[in-house]
């Protein structure tokens, strides 16, 4: 795949654009120093060619000849042509860089096919457009862009951009079950271009219009479009209520940091000669972006084939201590514990920032031949027992097999993730004699990056998984999956590679004192211990395998738990009149005290508490990081305090005898550094 930004230089005039309006009037601040069409940007200028992997789709007016527009080909890592087959509905590319004009009173539009990956891919967007608002001052909702929205209705805004002349605003919209709109003041003069940078980051959606940031609001998981509804520029649903001209539409992946947002806005305003309209304190008001720094190259996983081959060739060294008692654990602190005192699983479409588990996860087909259903389904596959403090993932037949599965993040990547540490679960599978059905329970993890960078490898670590053929045969594996989108980069593995870390029976023939068959109806405990040098895998206190720790193992990861059914892996059919439970006692994550004590880049010190650790008093966090957007998660002895996501927490009688801790993530800073407060004193 060719990964270009546009046929000509998308960053034309990145340093100082000379953009003319349809009337031939130059932008107020246009400078003659701008590059000529087709020329390369100055070497020291910041421009959109520098972070090419971030660009998913990009349409720029330089790529079009003047006159009628039947097709507008995008650049980006997922290029698409926006087309119009009907001549009477085609917009016009105006001369003198006047943009693509969609005329008032028409349904002029350029459309492209639905993008079901929009919830993952469309993390930010830059739209430069102008609207004839002054003579259409009472008009409202004048369409510029709508992804997946050709059939109308609010559910297909991934994103939508429009003008509201009645309010004098340029509007960015998304829909996460409710319509979310952010709008900023725009010029009502048709001679002026308006620049928008819209984005969603963490649990917040915001926009910057002509350099002014909106207040922002909470955004939850976006759903994939199921209606096959086209995307468009212009309007396919209603006649345009005013003339609109588009200079460019750019849609990108990843979560932008504040410096990237400023660069995009500065680039856009200089491009159209409106830099003097930027706020006085905007860093690019006096000069355009010129520095190329780490913000243009955020950290990403890099596949190293030579290192992978070396690691994969370890051989039987990984079994040198199998069957032996696992080495003692010391120097660790529990940073996450769910012992299921309550049912902490929520629908993945509804979970908020403080939620713990999202179901049924974002993976289609995770249950194989059993549909993984939401917790709201009836009968439920998520059965909480308040007496035993357990949660069961239940396989049941309700006309067809259904099951439960959950993840520590939702389908948009919002939730809890960890890097190194000990990942532990205690669970019980049903007691079933051989021959057994093809049940397929698993405790595993995915690297978080693939949810934000669809051009990057998806990292999978299977802490353990079993099939129904042999309950004593454990599978532990590491996978590097090819990316969702092909991307030519030597640091991306173009094809799947995997390595089985362990695959054998847990029995005396392999050094264990007794056979551990998970279908014995008893609780068992598994954990993966990922440290700087080696990673260890343990069942019921006995070592199963150890391997050198790799970047794939230490990657920021989210936990997945499921109880699948694969009819091709069994030697018997399950009884549809019965239910089968994977009962979970707890899930725990521990990290080393040394790692928790490290001050990450961006922080001046570890976050710190102020306040007295007493009931009725409040603990307040000083984050010790400069960031416009920070996320806080509170824990009591490692147990998440659901719903507590603020900078302060008021202590109550429930906290007596316990210690508090807060996790702080600087969402708006490069690579989103995170740190923990030290534990509070015991609440008394």
UniProtKB/TrEMBL annotation:
<dbReference type="InterPro" id="IPR013320">
    <property type="entry name" value="ConA-like_dom_sf"/>
</dbReference>
<dbReference type="InterPro" id="IPR000757">
    <property type="entry name" value="Beta-glucanase-like"/>
</dbReference>
<comment type="similarity">
    <text>Belongs to the glycosyl hydrolase 16 family.</text>
</comment>
<feature type="region of interest" description="Disordered">
    <location>
        <begin position="27"/>
        <end position="47"/>
    </location>
</feature>
<feature type="domain" description="GH16">
    <location>
        <begin position="309"/>
        <end position="595"/>
    </location>
</feature>
<dbReference type="InterPro" id="IPR006311">
    <property type="entry name" value="TAT_signal"/>
</dbReference>
<protein>
    <recommendedName>
        <fullName>GH16 domain-containing protein</fullName>
    </recommendedName>
</protein>
